């Protein structure tokens, strides 16, 4: 198993200009032109999280296109929060299709990427052939703002509610504790008795 994991070759990236930004895009299976599939990573992932699926999708006959979404990897990182609105994130995927000359494609999303793909299907249905989403079910937008909905279910101490209610606090905490945050997030082989020590 480890030998096959280490032998996976990840495609080289290309910078592609879309929507007044640049996206770092990884592409495989160019020989399968005409059968596009776009993979949308979640948080705190990037395009590399699809490394095991890319070769299998190429073998299945797909032209695989995997962007690092805006704010990730070498892709542009706009400073304005509004630049990360869903209309921009879905617009980036539509612009990638246009760049490659495709009318529509299959989209796969994981975690935050699934949210983008769900919204892509709503905002740009004509560009979507099929969608496959993992780890994030579709949730219809309700009358209540999402953060209030989350607070009602999980309470004010939930990390997501807490950090969204206090703008700038999460940024400051992460800036001061980058190593610890990343170590906690990406730890492996941690036994339950060790969790209190992390």
Description:
The protein has eight helices and six strands. By secondary structure, it is of the alpha/beta class. The protein has a six-stranded mixed β-sheet, sandwiched between helices. Strand 3 (36-40), helix 2 (53-59) and strand 4 form a beta-alpha-beta unit.
Instruction: Please list the strands of the largest sheet in the order they lie side by side.
Output: 1-2-4-3-5-6
SSE succession: HEEEHEHEHEHHHH
Number of strands: 6
Count of discrete alpha- or pi-helical segments spanning 4 or more residues: 8
Low-pLDDT runs: 192-198
Outline of the structure:
This protein is of the alpha/beta class and about 200 residues long. The chain contains 8 helices and 6 strands, in the order αβββαβαβαβαααα. A 6-stranded mixed β-sheet has the order 1-2-4-3-5-6, with helices on both faces.
